[in-house]
C3H1-type domain-containing protein (Arabis nemorensis), 834 residues
Amino acid sequence: MASSSIDQIPSAAETLTSQLPSDNTPTSVEPIPSSDSHPTADVPMASSSIGELTSVAETLTSHLPSDISSAPVEAVGEKRKRDDEKTNLESSDPNLTPSPWWKTSLCSYFRRQGNCSHGSTCRYAHGEEELRQKPDNTWDPTSERGKKAKMSENAGKCDAEEEEREVLFTEDMMDENDGEEGCGDSVHDLSLSKCLVHLPRKWQSDDLKKFIGELGVEFKFAKKRRGMMVGFLTFENAEQLQSGVETLEGKAVGHKNLKIADVLPRATEKNQTKNPAKIKSAREAVTPLADLSYADQLEQKKASMMQWLKKLTRNARKACPNGKSLPEWVLQSREIGGLSCKLEGIIESPVRNGYRNKCEFSAGYSVEGKTTVGFLLGNFSAGVTAVEEPVDCPNISKIACRYASIFQTFLENSRLPVWNKFKNFGFWRQLTVREGRKPGVISNGEDAETSIAEAMLIVQVCTTGTDEAEVATEFEEMAKAFAEGAKASSPTLPLTVLLVQDHQGISNVAPPDCPLRLLPIPMSDNETTNQDQPTNVLAEARIHDHINNLRFSISPTAFFQVNTGAAEKLYSLAGDWADLGPDTLLFDVCCGTGTIGLTLAHRVGMVIGIEMNASAVSDAERNAKINGLSNCKFICSKAEDVMSSLLKEYLDVSQMEEAKPPSNANDDLDKQISSTEEMSNSEPVDDQSLPTPNIHEEHQNNEQKDSSSSEPERSTKLQFKNVVAIVDPPRPGLHPDVIKALRTHPRLRTLVYISCNPETLVANAIELCTPSFLEKAEQGNNGYRKQRRMGTAASARHRAKKMPASEPFRPVKAMAVDIFPHTDHCEMVMLLKR
Ligand SMILES: C[S@@+](CC[C@H](N)C(=O)[O-])C[C@H]1O[C@@H](n2cnc3c(N)ncnc32)[C@H](O)[C@@H]1O
């Protein structure tokens, strides 16, 4: 661990990352929402400001610093502290090392009255000369230096807004045949057209026309699609345009102001007017940190995680009921710069290039109007539809790039159209490439691809309104193109499974029960296909990967961490922190294919995995069997529906047997290691003999399903001395009912939270770690509407107030794990105990 983690000392430059792209921290590398369980919405990593500022009322002490809002760590709670102890913060004794917060805020008394009764012992600065920089390298925002910094920050924001004006490819919105007056012209005078940015997403064309009409603006036609924040306006002539722009620019709509931007034309051979310098490359869109050194990327992520840990402290203070003393961890936070617990460091990814084992490539048009398979250059809701090839994106493997290129060449000659996001029309939508790696050493060099043994291709289409025979021919030709392309590549590409997913929805994010169809892969040059392959073997459509010497079977829609090598480190860390032993009952909440529970099964008495995706649960059961682990049980259900009853079932039983170490746990481990060694020398798929559930049946059966890889349950339950939960939820975090169940069960003392989204980790931790104050809780749902308008942290504080009386957890330590090099994303592991 030590060798791979960056030191623990908070970096001086706690640079805030500006924004996250949307990669499904997950499994999509597109900057738009992805189909995986980690959603992909942009998350401003440093968004803690306004809504989260410590309330002024709370900080009203007799002697205020002038920047209350910016001094949450040192100032808030100061009054509580002052009564019981004197800190070096307050001391001017030269023999004491002054607090890092000494004189980092201006004294408001001194400022107003020109003097202060505390004189030279005042902890706040008397004037600009005395003012010191805060430990996080910021200045009191009311000071001259603070204001200057704010101005340059705002200038940066303006630049960011400027970027928003780059609305790509919006010309499509005005294409013919959509029934709009004036849209019939196949050639538009784009100089008479404008984009309106910051419109309410729920508006449609009629709302836009009404709004413009009421302002007396004349126009030729207006267009707006629900869900987007851009609309389009075309004027009859230059005079209309000029007066329209003058009226509309900056006009308030809701709580935003309208911006007017140029419509960027689709560049064609005749029309090469686009200024490529203004457009993001795929590399910039998908791997925004790629131009930083890896050490700088890690520093940046670590600094960002620290901001989130500070935010947790600030929110816990706010959530703490009046009259109750602040939890010890909040009081102690001042000793570690306001962090809610120590950030131990950041664990590096063992592989930095080509690490993604799952890539989702969109089918669309490039800025030049060329059929392209690659990444969207921005957010569709902001009007960006251009797709660019995955050139120079260091997180994508050569194999995935090669398949994208094969598919693109095939689409160039296809009789069926690619999907048009504006018109919700077309056939070819997306290519997903999933890779399975051989067991053994993970290589970070040029030969990284040699460890990839299997590849699953999932092509998403929309068959609405198509001719069945034509589609069948296209699929056959596509399968041939992939097979030939794989064979012609050097080295030959693995091709294990080819699937088609028929999805009718507006976005490419398909539900897990979206129909899948297995296509036969042509086997040889003379096109002898594997026609013998029965069509009902969809359940065998799977690839395999390896973590900690265990073999994992993965079905098409099951979640699997996209960076296998880094995931291995993540799971080991969670296990090391979880305080495991033979008398431990481990709950693996949101277990996916069982990776966490199974890799730790040999260290505990029993694992109970909970997962809502039926295919993933069936994979987890299969994976327990493949690896000879018999102390694991998997529940197919939403965690919020079963967490409380499972805790009761396993912990509150009256008739219990004392747990003994699982007799076969260590044997199993030895067995699995040797069998994995065998596997590494053998053909990859060796679990075919296992009973295989039918995927379709599973999808249809969404009811709770218990399954166990052990013998039928005994009437008496085992009594486990130690109960631990490791939770690994998707980006929205844990459901409030899961939090409540975990928090209110007194026997659960250790909780390891693995998070791909620090914002929801903070929100969940607020509920888990602040003292309960039910006596003051407002009951019922009357706050619901208000809550919906709150930020995540504010609504967590609101829910914390309703938490039934229970002992809160405390954050003990945290570690960042860099699963996603070159992107803004990062996993965080936090140990909570009580
Ligand atoms: C971040 S993944 C983690 C999976 C697994 N722990 C791993 O590392 O491979 C989150 C998982 O939670 C599942 N999930 C999402 N919402 C859930 C819910 N409400 N209840 C149970 N599982 C859920 C998803 O299907 C996904 O498999």
